[in-house]
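User: We ran a pulldown and think these components assemble together. Before we commit to crystallization trials, I'd like a predicted model of the whole complex to look at. Sequences follow.
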Amino acid sequence: MSQHTVIPFGPQHPVLPEPLHLDLVVDDERVIEAVPQIGFIHRGLERMTQTHDYNQFIYIAERICGICAFGHSLGYAETIESLLGVEIPPRAEYLRVILHELSRMHSHILWLGLAADAFGHEALFMHCWRLRERILDVFEATTGGRVILSAVIVGGMVRDQDAAMLQMIKDTIVGIKDEYGQLVNTFVNDSSIRSRLDGIGYISKEDAMRYGMVGPFARASNVNNDVRCLGKGGYGKLSTFDPIMDTSGDCFGRAKVRALEVLQSADIIEEMIDTIPGGEVAIPVKHAPEPGAQACNTLEQPRGECYYYALSNGTKYLERMRMRTPTSVNLAGMAMALKGCDLADVNMIVLTIDPCISCTER
Amino acid sequence: MGFASKSPWVIHYDASSCNGCDIEVLAALCPGYDVERFGIINTGNPKHADIFLVTGSVNEQNIRVVQEIYNQMLEPKVVVACGCCACTGGVFHDSYNVLGGVDQAIPVDVYAPGCAVRPEAIIDAVVEGLAVLEQKSEALQQQRKGA
Amino acid sequence: MGHNRTFQDVAVEDLLDLATKLDKDGWRAVQVLCTSTDNGIDLTYSFARDEDLANYQVRGVTKDTQVPSLQGMFLGLFPFENEAKDLFGVNITGMVLDFAGEFYQTSMSEPMTILSPEAKARKDKAAKAAAAKAAKESKEPKDGAGGALTEEEIEAKVAGLPPEKAEKLRTALRAKAQKAGKPAEKPAPKAMTEEEIEAKVAGLPPEKAEKLRAALLAKAKQASEEQQA
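Assistant: Here's a predicted model for the assembly, 738 residues in total across the polymer chains.
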C-alpha cells in the first residue's frame, strides 16, 4: 500500500536561480502531481505606467528580467513605435537584431551551464560560463553594461556602433565558435549526459499544441511557433531562416535545440554585420499617441514568443502596458511534464523550460 | 587573524530580483572572477553558510522566506544586500507590491549597490563582510568564555 | 511584417462558443489581459495560428458578470485567469486550476484597479479642463443679455480691497462690461504691408528671415482675401 506525501520544493533551492514553489505530491519516489505557486517576485510594475511616461518606462521594462533584459526593451520599443506609427531607420533595425541575437547566445549558454550543474556536470557549467564572459565583454564594450544594457530607446538605438566595434563583435563570435563547438559535442554525444537526459520529461506534439507551449520548449516537441520566421524588423532582411526543431520531446531534445540555436545566432550576427546599411540610428520621438489607440506586438525571445500590448489615453502616460512572457504559458506544460517522473529528476525538468519567473510575474 | 574569515561559504537567495544580480553572483563564482580560489562555495543549506547574499527587494510573499532562511543560519553570520533593489527597493521602490529593500526583513551588514551589481562589487562587499564576520566571531567567543 | 494583427469585440456570452470554435480550428491561446476602465474591466483574449494574431475584447465586465474560464480547452491560460481574479477582481468561474485569490499575495486587493496618486491627479486635471472647456462653449455670448455688470455692481465687488487692487479690478470689470455690451465681433485681421513685413524680418539670420517672410506674406494674402469677401 503506497502513501502519498506532499513535498514542498523551493522557493530557495540551489538549482533554482529564481524562486518558484512547487507542491509535489509523491508516491514513494514518483511524482504524481505538481502544483506550481508563484508570486515571490511580483513587483507590480505594470501599474508603473501611471507614474512614468512612455520614454521613462523603457528602463522599467528592461528590468523585468536580467537575462532577457534586451529582449524586453526591444519588444516594448517596437510596440510603442507601432502605437505611434513611427518607422525607425534601417541601421537601427540591424543593430537591434545583432544585440538581440547576442542576448540569445548569452541566455542559451547560461542555461546550458545551469542545466549541466543540474545534471551533475560541474566542469561543463564552469566552461559554459567562462565562454559567456566573452559575450558579456562585448556587451560592456558596446553598450556599457553587462546585464542591463539600456541600448534601445523608442525611435531607435541610444548609440551607434562604428566599423571597428562591429569587427570586434565578429572576431569574438568567430573566436567562441571553436570552443563552443567542443561543448556542443559533449552535450550531444557524451553517453553519461545522454543517460541523464534521454526520455526524461517527455511531452508529445499534440500535448505541446494543446498547452500552447512556445519557444525551444515547444520546438523540441516539433511544434514551431518561432516569431522570427515571420520576418519582422531586421529579421526580414535575413537571407534564410529555418528554426531548429527536434522530434524527441524530452529533456535531451530541449538541450540540443538550445545548444544548436547558439550556433545559428552566431551565423545570423555575422550576416547582419556583413550587410548592415549606413545612416542614422535614431529618430526623435516625443509626441503623445492618439487617445484610444492600441497596439500589440510579438517577439521571439530566447525562451519563446513574447506578447506586448499597449493602450493609450492620449497623454504621454500609457493607459495600459502588458508584457506576456513565454514562461507563463510554459508553466502548464511544465506541470504536466512533471507527472510520473522520479523525484531526483524534478530539478532537471523544471530547468528545461528555462524558467524565468521574474518575467512571468513582473 | 581568526579562522572565521577563511573560506566562508555563501548561500544565495533571490527575493524579488529581476535575476540580473543573481547571474552576477553566479558569475562571481565562475572562472571569469573565480571566488572559489578563496574557498568560497555556494551552498544550498542555510546551516552550512556564513554569508547570506540576498538580491532583490522584499514583498509580502517573500518576507517570510527571507526571515526563515536568516533564522536558520547559525551565528556568526553576515548579510550582504546585493544590488540597488536589495539596498532600497531600487527603481521599484514606489510600486504597490514592494515593501522596500532587504533591511525591511532582516538586519543587513553590507550594502552593495549597482544595477546589476558588478562581480567586482560583490567581491568587495564580501571582503567587507569578512571583517564584520571576524568581529562577530570574536564577540561570540568572548560571550562563551564569559558565560 | 510579423503577425497579422486584428482586434475585435466579442460579448461575454459568446466567449465559450468562440473558444470552442477556435480550439477546433487549431488556434493556440496566447494570453488574457485586463484593462481597468471607468465602465468596468475590459478583457482581451489573444489567439494565434500560423501568421495570424487575433485579439478578442470583452468590454465593461463588472463584479456581477460571470466570465467562463477557458482552461478546459486551453490549460496554458491558468496564470492569466488567476491573475485577472487577483489583481483586477474579475469573477471567472469554472477554472481547472483555481488559486482562489492566493496566486499573488499582494498587500492591497485588486491593486490594478486602483489609480496611483499621480495618475489620479492627472485624470482629475484633464477632467476639470474638459469640463471648463465644455462650460465655456455652452456659455457663448448670447445676444446682449447677461455678463454686463452695472456700475453699482462693480463698486460692490471692489469694496473692501486695497486701493491699487480695487483700481485694477474696476478697470478690468469695466472693460469686460463694455465688451459684453457689444455683440462679439472679431476684429478683421489687418493685412500687413510689404514694409511692415520687411521691418519684422530685419535683423534675423537669412534662413529664418526667409521662413518668416514667406509665412507673413501668406497670412497677409489670406487676410486681404477675407477683407474683400
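Chain B has one domain: 10-146. That may be worth checking against your pulldown data before setting up trials.

User: Thanks, that helps.
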